[in-house]
Amino acid sequence: MAPEGLQQLLTQADGRLIVFYDGGCPLCRREIRHYRRMDRQGGIFWQDIAHQPQVLNDTGIGFRDAMALFHVVEPSGRIVVGAHGFVRIWQRLPGYRWLGAVCRYTGLVWPMDGAYRLFAAWRWKRRSACATCA
Q1: Mean pLDDT to the nearest integer, 83-105
Q2: Residues 6 or more apart from 116 whose CB is under 8 A from it?
Q3: DSSP class of 36
Q4: Among candidates 116, 13, 8, which has minimal Cα distance to 74?
Q5: Three-class secondary structure of residue 11 per DSSP
Q6: Are 62 and 17 in contact (CB under 8 A)?
Q7: d(Cα 90, Cα 70) in Å, to the nearest integer?
Q8: What's the pTM value of the predicted model, to 2 decimals?
Q9: Alpha helices, DSSP H, located in the chain
Q10: Which phi and psi angles does 43 have, rounded to 5°?
């Protein structure tokens, strides 16, 4: 069974994918804003953890971990991290579904995840040194 905080978020999300993102990062905000515009059916439950870190309380996901790497939670409660999380978003967005399927089912997501993790480490190091990013 999922931790209590995660179970509460799953209830609030009501069958939607939960996405935790760094709303204090200009690049992240821009990308998520694009995805939110594409999410016309409201199939994704967006959570800005930079401005509402308490949403991670008792979820089993640490704040630092969630800020350093992209995290999503499937309606089943399964936590998906890194490029795999982006693929889950793409699978739910019009215009991106084909890309999500190609990446997930061909194995392309694995090298994407390696590249994403290198970028994420650079981004987190830079973000951590920025006093005015939040």
Answers
A1: 96
A2: 70, 82, 83, 86
A3: H
A4: 13
A5: helix
A6: no
A7: 14
A8: 0.90
A9: 4-13, 26-38, 63-68, 83-90, 97-106, 109-129
A10: -85, 0
Strands 17-21 and 44-48: parallel
Domain 4-122, CATH class in plain words: alpha beta
User: Taking the C-alpha atoms of 35, 93, 48 and 123 in order, what is their torsion angle to the nearest 10 degrees?
Assistant: -60
Phi, psi of 87 (to 5 degrees): -60, -40
Token readout for 128 is 């951590």
- Dihedral of the alpha carbons of 68, 124, 49, 47, in degrees to the nearest 10: -70
Phi, psi (degrees; rounded to nearest 5) at 93: -110, 135
All structural domains of the chain with their residue ranges: 4-122
pLDDT band at 129; cut points 50, 70, 90:
low
d(CA 67, CA 4): 21
* The amino acid at 69: L
Helix axes of 109-129 and 83-90: crossing angle, nearest 10 degrees:
110
- How does pLDDT run across 57-78, given as a tens digit for each residue? 999 999 999 999 999 999 999 9
How far is residue 48's CA from residue 20's CA, in Å, rounded to a whole number?
6
